[in-house]
Amino acid sequence: MLKIIKSMSKKLKLDNMVKICTHSGSFHADESLAVYLLRLLPQFSNAELIRSRNTEDWEKSDIVVDVSGKYDGKKYFDHHQREFNTTFNDKYSTKLSSAGLIYKHFGKDIIQEVLNLSSGDKNVDLLYDKIYKEFIESLDANDNGINNYPKDVDQKFNEKNITLPSMVAKLNPRWNESCKDEDFDRQFLVASDLMGKTFINLLEGYGKGWLPAKSIVETAFNDRFNIDKSGEIIVLSQFCPWKEHLYAIEKNNNAEGSIKFVLFKDSSGKWRISTVSVTSSSFEFRKGIPEQYRGLRDEELSEKTGIEGCIFVHAAGFIGGANTEEGVLKLARLSLQTE
Fold it and tell me: Predicted confidence band at 15 (pLDDT cuts at 50, 70, 90)?
């Protein structure tokens, strides 16, 4: 047990506390995160943490994580039983770990709590799936021994010491130092803090950075025909990470591949014209800035294009710049007209 009760009055007080239980001894990334996630919720924020493999401790706890051999979605959240095959939803085939189980049942509430979103906010569902896909699923797979690559693929380098699960594993007491229960309990809290802060940073990054960017790109996309009758140019009201959102917005509007150029103001106050890649991972763009303007700068570029205030066009033709929005818009239109 993590806390030792030293007096009868203290014991009575703790007996009335909400209790989270996970197993004692060595720990992993999944239950380290699961416990932190629970403590983000009001009903568990001040809970006593018990680390035990004793049935009596499980029974007197309010929620039991990664131990007990039971999963009921209410009190018991273990995944080690032979018959367990639960996944996040029908889109995923990865079997859940304790992190995935807690996230599956409490993730939406956690997102609402951390980001102060209402239960009816459509972004809760969006973030719920995205965070599972881009973070929690990898922890589930790692804990269940699922490889990300075929076994016959040779690794170019060893990355095992820079992954979160490996970092957590190394927080366990070493074999040749004190390995009492209290040593594991102390280090478990360090591991839980590491996993939890990583999760919070990711969630806040998506909620406070990624989502606002989506709104900016969506507004620009909806206004595209007011920018140019072709509907192939968008202007962002301010710079933001736009690529991932643009592909998704195009797909949702049955307009995949329609946007050829994205215009925005950079940190210096100048304007940029960016091409759009064929896919998110491709270096090939849908429409480039014309070959004859690539690698040119300033007055030479302005003279060749007939556009005042040009600054540069990259030699590869994927980005350029001008002093004004009007300048990059003209450059985009000129590019559209050039075969």
Answer: low
3-class secondary structure, 159: coil
Provide the residue range defining the domain that includes 268: 223-337
Nearest to 189 by CA among 21, 62, 61, 49: 49
217 occurs within a structural domain: no
- One domain, residues 34 and 119: yes
Let me know whether 167 and 26 are in one domain: yes
What is the C-alpha separation between 65 and 189, in angstroms, rounded? Answer: 15
Q: 178 and 87: one domain?
A: yes
Cα(84)–Cα(68) distance, integer angstroms? 13
Whole-angstrom distance, CA of residue 303 vs CA of residue 127: 48
User: Under a CB-based contact definition with an 8 Å cutoff, are residues 195 and 29 in contact?
Assistant: yes
Helices (H), the chain: 8-15, 29-39, 55-60, 98-115, 122-131, 137-143, 164-169, 181-205, 211-222, 224-227, 243-252, 298-305, 325-337
Q: Which amino acid is at 41?
A: L
Residue 292 DSSP SS3 = helix
User: Alpha-carbon distance 274 to 320, whole Å?
Assistant: 7
Of the pLDDT bands very low, low, confident and very high (cuts 50, 70, 90), residue 14 is: low
- Residues 103, 204: one domain? yes
Give CA–CA dist 13/176, Å, rounded. Answer: 37
Q: DSSP letters of 47-64? A: PEEEE---HHHHHHSSEE
pTM of the model: 0.87
- The reply to whether 36 and 98 lie within a common domain is yes
